[in-house]
Amino acid sequence: MALPHSSPFFHLLLAFFFLWHLPLGFSDQSNCQAWLVQSIPTDMPDLQLVPGVLSTGDVLQWLAGNATKSLDLTVQYWELLAGPNDSNSGDYGYSEAKMKKFGADVGREVYKSLINAADRNVDIRIIQHSGLYPNYVQEASDLAAGRTNVKNITLLLKNWWGTGIVYSKVWVSDNKDIYIGSANNDWKSLTQVKELGIYLVGCTKIARSLRHYINNLWILSTLNSTDYTRTIFDSQWQASRKVPCWSNFIPKEERCRPPLHPARHVPHVNGYPIIEDPATFDISIETPGMDASTASSDLSYLSFSPPELLFHNFQSDEQGWIETIKSVENGGTVRISTMD
Ligand SMILES: *[C@@H]1O[C@H](CO)[C@@H](O)[C@H](O)[C@H]1NC(C)=O
Ligand SMILES: *[C@@H]1O[C@H](CO)[C@@H](O)[C@H](O)[C@H]1NC(C)=O
Ligand SMILES: *[C@@H]1O[C@H](CO)[C@@H](O)[C@H](O)[C@H]1NC(C)=O
Ligand SMILES: *[C@@H]1O[C@H](CO)[C@@H](O)[C@H](O)[C@H]1NC(C)=O
Question: Which atom of ligand 4 is nearest to the CA of 224?
């Protein structure tokens, strides 16, 4: 994942996990399909796209290209447009030919696909972190400028948790097609950095759950965090921390009603309990890019962080990782793609 070096303590992460596979021998009507998606740096002839795996640049253009009604994006930062002529940009000074060789065109194509979707009057919602020097959220602002169908908000999680950023990279198109992965809205994330994600097509149930989460982030961005946060002493980490007022870190009787939905009362524990039974989707997911040909019913779930946004319903990212590792059978292999 491409991101700045000052890695904050809490990232707003989001992952998608398959729990297990139950061969049922029939195909679900929803016809939800999944492909792995990757980015491979250009100029690495020995590192080819894995057969059956799609490229990030294509998938992002398809999501925008196929959108007829809505497009929801969570974005850490924007740099789809390279800046070889901008002396403040890391791209400065590279020739036109060099930029082409680096694959900068793909970023421009993805940005163009967003503009085209905006021009088709697709409702675009962007939830972003504050972005990076030198252009910060300019690309989103340009997209929104003069268009009532494009809404761009900057959500500063620092105001809610004392630290942290919107870190998830999610695209949801027409409430059914989805990208979840590591690629930023950065041309380098398409052609200069190794990235991994999943492309889900026709997956309405999963999209609905994602929208629910995104809607909550949207609400969060509209609230005055001063009114909805408290500073607590976290005895596990032996540190004072700012948390939302509905956090489990606050004694139950002092907790506020979460202004986000759904609100569920949970017993007070110091920190958060492991969720053994996250809300799961029992849907058949076809994987046309893989050899596995039999249709199967899969239990899957979405995981999120931080815990104040799980509502005892979604799984936490941390637990999702642990379960994925533990799900590997004896003598099996777990492959982990990580940044640091
Ligand atoms: C829509 O998505 C499919 C793959 O899911 C892709 O083949 C097609 O080119 C996309 N259409 C547009 C207009 O982007
Ligand atoms: C940079 O400047 C050159 C020369 O003026 C121009 O041909 C090129 O299109 C510019 N590139 C970008 C990305 O703006
Ligand atoms: C959203 O875009 C508009 C129009 O360009 C801009 O005025 C506004 O500052 C942007 N908002 C954020 C939060 O970036
Ligand atoms: C947020 O609430 C605080 C305290 O209630 C108030 O002082 C501040 O002006 C509010 N900020 C905004 C942007 O409304």
Answer: 1
